[in-house]
């Protein structure tokens, strides 16, 4: 058995709600990847992210904007348009995301096996 966990390891003052890593938002990483090569319009994002509803995409973009990872720029003129782009903070996530993608690729078979085993165990428990 390892060293006991510190009961104060999670500082109650810590802004953990500001964490850009969201288990519940499966679209954030994909949105960041879509913006990697430059700003995009909402309609452009909908193409590779066709599995997300407009409402959920809007919510994800707003969350990323709130966290300072994505900027929203409204262009005035006869053809008004809005573009979303990575901020410097958002762009700083690309390296860690590359590392996570490489890790997932290296361990893909193990991850799939674990999920399949878990599904079997859960099915048997029901």
Automatic annotation (TrEMBL):
Keywords for the protein's UniProt record, in alphabetical order: DNA-binding, Transcription, Transcription regulation
GO MF annotation list: DNA binding
Record bears the keyword Ubl conjugation: no
Domain HTH hxlR-type, first and last residues per copy: 14-112
Keyword DNA-binding: yes
Pfam families assigned to the protein according to its UniProt record, in alphabetical order: HxlR
Protein name: DNA-binding HxlR family transcriptional regulator
UniProt source species: Planomonospora venezuelensis
